[in-house]
Design goal:
Elements: H1 5-14, H2 18-52, H3 55-104, H4 107-112, H5 115-157, H6 159-166, H7 168-206, H8 208-213, H9 217-269, H10 275-316, E1 337-346, E2 351-361, E3 365-369, H11 376-382, E4 391-396, E5 399-400, H12 406-411, E6 413-416, H13 427-431, H14 440-449, H15 453-457, H16 476-490, E7 494-498, H17 506-520, E8 524-528, E9 540-545, E10 548-553, H18 555-561, H19 563-584
Parallel strand pairs: 3-8, 3-9, 6-7, 7-8
Antiparallel strand pairs: 1-2, 1-4, 4-5, 9-10
Helix pairs in contact: 2-3, 2-5, 2-10, 3-5, 5-6, 5-7, 5-10, 6-9, 7-9, 7-10, 9-10, 14-16, 18-19
The chain binds adenosine-5'-triphosphate (ATP) and magnesium ion.
Length: about 575
């Protein structure tokens, strides 16, 4: 990202809050600076009245001081609160945009993206952006006005000395620009590495069981340590720059002040300047130093924030899931057939599906069977357009899925995926997911049909039990039954069941199978199963091997003539035979 672009885009987030909040903050800042300009005059006035012995005038001074600092306090509060207000709104908007963007990403994005890395952008990076805007941007505005006012005062008080001092500005500003660019790059790299660190932590948390089971704590510790140290090194490099800018400008300012002292003292001795004039001028110089220092510091914050902003914009600029070609159709039902024609698909470069054709008529149950890795789940994913086919077409009632508006396409399809995913929420809300307005009776009915009701009522809070992240507090089979209940509740005309009963014991499987059988009546289903017994009654069975459909027909037909199907069948039959023998022995 080019320098300057990030600033402009961040500024766009500021525009909705320009009036009254941001302008209000600026007004407060300007007033604050203006009161700073009054301070040298207080000192000057004091000196003059001391020298003149003006008791009455001196008596007025405390009131004046209290007045000035009272106003200073009020406007300081105003600028601080208002700029924070604006900053927090911007954080809110940025987070909302990021979240919305993440929700709109195609699944292929999540195949590559790492959770920890996305998370750190939504949590940490936006805070840095805010810091750049509020602490940084506001400080620049405030301190730049202070600086301008004080410089004007200094020039007004003593133009010659002020001009002498001004020589230092370019000496500080030029190297600062160079350091700024470096700072921004380092910030970006530091955050990238930090994101990598969150990815590691997230993995060790989610994979805690595997880490322990394989005794890999030391290995994980080492992985973390080396990544952690990379973060440290990058931060130290940034710290070097940050620590350098302060002393650099301090020293340069000291040179300026030394010049002023040298020249000023000589002219004071020569009687060209007065003590009170010099005192006022030096007060202005001393006051000037503070905002100058703050601007330099604020610049560091801004550069760090812009590094973070570039990461935030990386997400915001990623391509969303296409919701359909222009003029995409909405469909409100499924009446005829799904036609998969000459479909090929690759996740990367290697084809996972090659020239697959399959027809699923309305009301049919079509099963996909075959060796692991053959492409069954992938084929099923293409129908609700979780991924898009590279070539060929998938049509529902004659309309290409690419031409159907996404939400209407997906509302037709209920999916039970191979990896069940449940939310850290109540059982009720997990079943009702996607059907938020359904009544409790409907939810219980779906749970009963999925053979889940009995175990649910035994949970501590029944349907109101929270089941932990990804449903960790449930057994694999229980999770699967909740996922089935969720799909049943959706009541969609097309069902995709990917290994929906794989985690169930044979008794539960029979019960769920019966429930699914009832459910599939009058619906269209694509069922993926390893256990052939579960798909025996399907209208059509497609054997998928290495990305192709190699055999297609009913169980009877394939049992007679399907070579691969027969082999699978015999293998499983042998297994079942052995198990039965062992059990009876
Ligand atoms: N998200 C992905 N990114 C890249 N490659 C993938 C992805 N998902 C699956 N694959 C690859 O695509 C191939 C087909 O996978 P798929 O999940 O469709 O097989 P499957 O037939 O469902 O297998 P199983 O019976 O084990 O579930 C596999 O070789 C797998 O490595
Ligand atoms: Mg699969």
């Amino acid at each position: 990202m080019k320098i300057g672009v990030a600033e402009r885009r961040i500024f766009a987030y500021l525009t909705p809050y320009l009036w009254p909040h941001f302008i209000g903050a600026l007004v407060c800042m300007v007033l604050y600076s203006a009161t700073s300009g009054a301070v040298p005059y207080i000192v000057k006035g004091l000196f003059e009245r001391f020298q003149a012995g003006d008791i009455e005038g001196l008596n007025m001074q405390p009131l004046f001081i209290i007045g000035v600092f009272g106003l200073r306090g009020i406007v300081n509060y105003g600028q601080s609160y208002l700029s924070e207000w604006v900053g927090q709104r911007i954080v809110l908007d940025l987070r909302a945009d990021l979240d919305r963007k993440v929700l709109s990403m195609p699944l292929s994005y999540f195949d590559r993206a790492q959770t920890g890395n996305i998370l750190s952008r939504i949590t940490t990076d936006v805070l840095l952006v805010r810091q750049a805007l509020t602490d940084g941007g506001a400080a620049i505005v405030r301190d730049a006005t202070t600086l301008l006012v004080l410089t004007a005062v200094a020039f007004y008080l003593d133009p010659v000395l002020a001009a002498l001092f001004s020589i230092i500005f370019p000496v500080v500003v030029l190297p600062l620009q160079k350091l700024s660019r470096k700072m921004r790059r380092l910030s970006r790299r530091g955050l990238d590495t930090l994101g990598g660190l969150s990815v590691l932590v997230q993995e060790t948390i989610q994979g805690a069981r595997v880490v322990k089971a394989f005794g890999m704590e030391r290995y994980e510790d080492e992985r973390f340590r080396s990544e952690n140290e990379r973060v440290l090194r990058l931060h130290l490099r940034a710290a070097k720059i940050k620590s350098f800018t302060g002393p650099m400008m301090e020293f340069t300012s000291a040179c300026g002040i030394a010049g002023v002292v040298w020249y000023g003292s000589a002219s004071l001795m020569g009687g060209e300047r007065t003590t009170s004039g010099m005192a006022a001028f030096f007060t202005a110089l001393m006051l000037l130093y503070d905002p100058f220092k703050k601007i330099v510091k604020a610049n560091n914050t801004i550069q760090a924030g812009m590094g973070a902003a570039s990461r935030v914009f990386d997400i915001l600029d990623a391509e969303s899931e296409p919701s359909g070609r222009p003029g995409a159709a909405t469909i409100d039902g499924f009446h005829d057939k799904i036609e998969i024609e000459h479909v090929s698909f690759a996740y990367g470069t290697e084809n996972v599906l090659s020239d697959v054709s399959l027809e699923v008529r309305c009301g049919e149950v079509v099963a996909l069977v075959g060796a692991s890795g053959g492409g069954k789940s992938t084929l099923a994913d293409l129908i609700p357009r979780f991924y898009e086919a590279d070539s060929g077409s998938i049509r529902i009632d004659g309309i290409d899925v690419k031409d159907i508006e996404l939400s209407s396409l997906r509302s037709l399809i209920a999916v039970v995926t191979q990896q069940t995913f449940l939310f850290n929420d109540t059982v009720r809300n997990n079943i009702g997911y996607g059907e938020i307005n359904r009544s409790d009776e409907d939810i219980v009915e779906a749970a009963k049909a999925a053979n889940a009701h009995d175990f649910i009522v035994q949970l501590p809070d029944g349907y109101d039990t929270k089941i932990g992240e990804m449903g960790v507090q449930l057994s694999g089979g229980e999770r699967q039954r909740l996922a089935i209940a969720r799909a049943l509740l959706k009541d969609a005309p097309i069902l995709i069941l990917d290994e929906a009963t794989s985690a169930l014991d044979s008794k539960s499987e029979q019960l769920v199978q019966a429930a699914l059988g009832r459910l599939m009546e009058g619906r269209t289903a694509l069922v993926i199963a390893h256990r052939l017994s579960t798909v025996r009654n399907a209208d059509k069975i497609a054997v998928v091997d290495d990305g192709r459909i190699v055999e297609l027909g009913t169980h009877e037909k394939l049992f007679q003539s399907g070579k691969l199907y027969r082999r699978f069948y015999d293998m499983q039959f042998d297994d079942e035979h052995t198990i039965a023998r062992e059990q009876s022995a």
